[in-house]
């Protein structure tokens, strides 16, 4: 994100269409965010991220093809300036630790809510740059 007037470009990756729809609504409602793409699996997420170079990727951990940890690790290597938010239903501290170790900037449980995830994405876009 180059300045305060530019909206952060977000890629959303979750294999559940309902989760994507609800998070898409929260992202669309956030004035600092612009959803540029959605992926239903990890391989699609990685391919889209490599082609679009979003400011923020919001990932679920449990996805087909490549899981969120694999995607986060590849993104950190390929797109070091991209912020990575893992937004997952896993509540275990181990899941959060694994996500951060894989390269995620932040871990947020889905129980925190979709607006909280959108806000976290906006904050990461600012602090990552």
UniProtKB/TrEMBL annotation:
Listed PANTHER family: TWO-COMPONENT RESPONSE REGULATOR
Alphabetical list of PROSITE patterns matching this protein: RESPONSE_REGULATORY
GO MF terms, alphabetically ordered: DNA binding
Pfam families on file: Response_reg (PF00072)
Keywords: DNA-binding, Phosphoprotein
InterPro entries per record: CheY-like_superfamily, NreC/VraR/RcsB-like_REC, Sig_transdc_resp-reg_receiver, WalR-like
Descriptive protein name: Response regulator transcription factor
Residue ranges constituting the Response regulatory domain according to the UniProt record: 9-125
4-aspartylphosphate modification, residue list: 60
GO BP: any one term: phosphorelay signal transduction system
SMART domains: REC
Domain of life from the UniProt record: Bacteria
Signal sequence range: none
